[in-house]
Amino acid sequence: MRVDAYAAPAAGQPLARTSIERRAVGPNDVLIAIEYAGICHSDIHTVNGDWGPQPFPVVPGHEIVGLVAEIGPDVTRHRIGDLVGVGCMVNSCGECANCRNGDEQYCSTGMVPTYAGTDRDGTITQGGYSTHVVVDADYVLRVPAGIDPAAAAPLLCAGITTYSPLRRWGAGPGKRVAVVGLGGLGHMAVKIADAMGAGVTVLSQSLKKQEDGLRLGADDYFATSDPDTFTELAGRFDLVVNTVSAGIDVDAYLSLLRVDGALVNVGAPAEPLSLNVMSLIGGRRTYAGSMIGGITETQEMLDFCAQHHIGAEVEVIAADRVNEAYERVLASDVRYRFVIDTATLT
Ligand code: NAP
Ligand code: ZN
Fold first, then answer.
1. 4 contacts 19 by C-beta, under 8 angstroms
2. Which among 88, 124, 119, 118 has a CA at the least distance from the CA of 104?
3. pLDDT tens for residues 116-157?
4. Ligand with minimal distance to 331 CA
5. Which domain holds residue 33?
6. Ligand 1: does its nearest atom lie under 6 Å from the Cβ of 28?
7. CB distance 184 to ligand 1 below 6 Å
8. 152 CA to middle of ligand 2, Å?
9. Do 175 and 64 belong together in one domain?
10. Using a 6 Å cutoff on CB, does residue 334 contact ligand 1?
11. What span, in angstroms and rounded, lies between the C-alpha atoms of 179 and 187?
12. What is the pLDDT of residues 301-334, one digit of tens each?
């Protein structure tokens, strides 16, 4: 099946209209007519070559929401017409200890990313900046009623990537959580941590988005460009979630943790970060990373968001504005997720 798409032809090149082939619907596959695809900073890292060479042309997009258009004969958990979502992975071995444990994202043979990955049939995956996608039913999520489809799309990456560490590190009543960077991931972290009952502080480069941050659910908002911020907040937080797409001063953020606190990095900059281990030793602190979340956990996150009436704050754009959106994301000028209306691809 030939479908319309938007692809990066080579590293660092602007995305352009194209068409790609989608496989025939297999016995356990779902054909999804995509309605919305979010633009994640990871799409930009990938096409700009920040994370190494890629199998160009690349159709990015791993925040996909659409309607089930066709199902294979073995599919039981999705029906034609259902509103569904696809996140950052479309396959994994299903048999290793991590997959069996619901951590498919850490599959020991490597999960299959939604784009620029090699699928288990040997083909290169292509993502959601397209009108249709065929995905194994086990990697297709149900989007609960009550979340606007465009606002639901970013939950499939930004939502789960922040929900997972917030849950794992115990964000909840009585806990103080700081979110570094108020972009796509950051604004979801604020909403979700607030819904979990934690006290939430935003640490942003400036106070430009302070009003938004407080409206989204933060109790406090500080500018990291002001050195007094680090003195004032020293030792305050149980958990700091770093969503920044660039390098940060890790020691400065570790100093904001109380004893036994954790700094969890979800931001994935191109360059390595360094730290002084004394920042950990001097407070039994943890520095950790976290990648998206498993399939069951992603469904749990979608259900949690529906229950708490949480969606992303989105700016819906036509496909021909993708390159402009990339520039704005790189300039930290996003409020708070660009989402492509895939009807504009045809
Ligand atoms: P985004 O929308 O661009 O948000 C990043 C935010 O970081 C910006 O809005 C800005 O917030 C802050 N920032 C940007 N450049 C900065 C700099 N030079 N110094 C300090 N702060 C800066 O990006 P995103 O889509 O949320 O993604 C964030 C990062 O997470 C990316 O690296 C992405 O690849 C990664 N990611 C990881 C996972 C995972 O599984 N671990 C999943 C998805 C994405 P302020 O303006 O408020 O300072
Ligand atoms: Zn993403």
1. yes
2. 88
3. 999 988 999 999 999 999 999 999 999 999 999 999 999 999
4. 1
5. 2-157+293-345
6. no
7. yes
8. 13
9. no
10. yes
11. 9
12. 999 999 999 999 999 999 999 999 999 999 999 9
